[in-house]
Amino acid sequence: MATASKSAKRRYEIVENKGNSEDVDDIIEAQVSDNADDSTDEESSEYSGLEDDEEDDSGDEEDESAWEEASDEDEEDDDQEQDMSTNEDSEDDSEDKVAPTAIPIEQVGSSASVEEPARPVEDEYAYDSSDEEDLRNTVGNIPMNWYNEYPHIGYDLEGKPILKPKRGDEIDNFLRKMENPESWRTVYDPQTGQDVILSNEDVELIKNVMGSRIPDGSYNPYEPWVDWFTNEVMETPVTGRPEHKRSFIPSRVEAIKVGRMVHAIKMGWMKPREAKDTSVERHKYYLMWNADDKSEDVRRIENPIPAPKPRLPGHAESYNPPPEYAFSEREITQWNRLSETPYQRKFPFVPKRFSSLRAVPAYDRFARERFVRCLDLYLCPRAKKMRLTIQPEDLVPQLPKPRDLQPFPTVCSMIFKGHKGLVRTISHDPSGQFLISGSDDQTLKVWEVATGRCFKTFEVKGTVRCVSWCPNSAIALVAAAVDNNVYLINPGVGDRLVQAKTDEILKEMPAQTDYLIPQRVRAVLTWNEPDKEQWASGFRVILTHFKAVKHVAWHSKGDYFSSVMPEGDNRSVLIHQLSRRRSQLPFSKSKGLVQCTLFHPLRPYLFVATQRHVRVYNLLKQELTKKLITGAKWISSIAVHPGGDNVLVGTHDRRLCWFDLDLSTKPYQALRHHGQGIRAVAFHKRYPLFASGSDDCSAIVSHGMVYNDLLKNPTIVPLKKLRGHDKFDDFGVFDVLFHPTQPWLFTSGADGTIRLYT
User: What is the pLDDT of residue 527?
Assistant: First the structure.
């Protein structure tokens, strides 16, 4: 494009004398030679097209022929009055003489075109639409990444490609930055590919823009204010009318009246008013709040009690209240209905909207409200109360941060899936390698903790309410409460020698020669042997109760276990001895609706949780030791600390109570972190951790440190709220259980899954 414009410019040459043929010939020869050079240059460049060169060459030949014809006609008509020495001198003289005129080549050959005045030719580069003042690259406002694959970056004004400067690699750029002190203000211009050094004004401008300030640093946004109007009030009269003459002359009518009054006073007809005696007070005031220690005047000066300020008006009192404050028809009807009890109204008035403040009528309740305000001021006694300057931080105990109390479970690492119903209970073996779960789908499943694999599934005809693994590692036995039965099952996992020993112990019933089963026990419970099919399935002993069994708990030695029947009244709790196949009823009277029982881990104590209280019995002395008052409406579960001196009680009314048996029978601390009822609580055997599961589908892990020093109270810090179970029929988490050796937590939920948090 630049080459074409270059040839077009030369077609309009500056001609001083139209009849000078020699000058025209010289111009033609120079043009042809230049066009030839341009064409060769264009052919040698890799950025030009062949078709444009051919068009330019053809155009040049036509122009050359036109010039030759025009020169021949000029030679015939010319008288050769002027003598030109050389072509170069003629061109120089033509440039130094009068103002040039641009004439197209095509119009020189005809006489008519010569006589017409020449038209100025518009230069296509005279106007540049770019915003840049000095734009050396003429490619326009286009994306410069179009030239990424080319060695040049655009074209200059002559149409020649602009080669990219050598940028170097990252090491060269780094060395250049280190050696150049102006590198911090050097930026790269993608339009030209050059590095531009910013001036101080540019740097200041960039700082102002980045600092959200005015870009121009010389601009002062805080100019002194110019008062267009004066603030001095001019005293001007109401009217400019001059005073009347009679205003300066005494009134004769008033003089006559004054004379008559003076005569009446002299005659005694008129008596003047007596002067008031200011020494005697006509009214006596009494101080209603007179202080005994000092006078009221001194108190009001030294220690004044200001009157309480009235309530400030809100948006409803406005003459143009917002639309949300306007009463609807239902609100107006309700407002009128409360006329007998106006103190129950939301507002003592109905908000109304007026077009302007001038249209607002007088307030009909103004006098009434002022009167009530005055009554408040003098009828309400005022007294100063010393406010306690207690910082809120002082009331909160200084608890350690959770990150300092690690380890504790934080994330869900494994999900055990396989049950088709609610998983109500879980229990682990003494080593922590296996886990057993009971569900409403009438199955018991044994899982491997490390892999999540289900080893065995036991089919039971009923809903599994509770399952508990025997804590004695010498035998492999699981107690499961299913409806009215308690099954003692050999899970068939773990050490085979232990399994064989367990079967050998339970294979034959011990001799009951000298023992007579009491009538009360015989009416409640029977020990049964399983049939062959049940024995092959893993069932070893079946205990049949007369009511549904809800809870089963083992003693720490593994020989005794207890079962709870909430509907059994005074026969709700039974204690069974596995070695002798005997059972006993420890209570003869009903103490309430029993929920669950637990054995003390160290002492011969039995914890019995009824609906509202937890009773602690001494089994050796057979007496009640303590009665823990929870203050709850319904107890759901209990857990005993491995030390035995602290008890955790979960309730259905969302409270978690911590009891210190050495301190008091009332809760040492009550935690209310769950949104719904708590289903299960558990202590860890090795770590100072305890957890609670609730129907809000969450399990909260807390730090509970118990000290050997009796003067130091336990430290309780909530650590983590674990979520993951889905709600089903308003049920969430049914059971929580800690791993015996690792800080891991198992939870079973109503969604049919068991989750392991580590």
Answer: 84
